[in-house]
Here is the input.
Amino acid sequence: MRQPGQSPRARRMLDPVPVVLRPRTNGDLDRFFHWERDPRVVHMAAFTRTGPSDRAGFDAKYELVGTDPSATLFAIDADGELVGTVASFTMGGERNVSYWICPARWGERWASGG
Here is the structure.
């Protein structure tokens, strides 16, 4: 319940918000590219491209992911907005899970609350 003077961000941190995992679509890719170019994300991420601003490299990566039968990539929607991704894939014979959260939504407990 929103308290008087409480910001929308504070409300999201306190109130449960419905979260939907859905298959990613090609329509999501522009947002993913924007997030993956953010210097803070590049600094923190375990997996990045050599050239974060290289759209052709980005598109090639997602085309490869889309054709890899061991890879599963979902978009995370909350409050009707795309807030991140979660992926499962095999690398070096081991199963891995990775996620991205939209930098504008950092600090809202999307990762820790999940």
Summary: The chain is about 30% helix and 25% strand. Residues 19-105 form a domain with the Aminopeptidase fold (CATH 3.40.630.30).
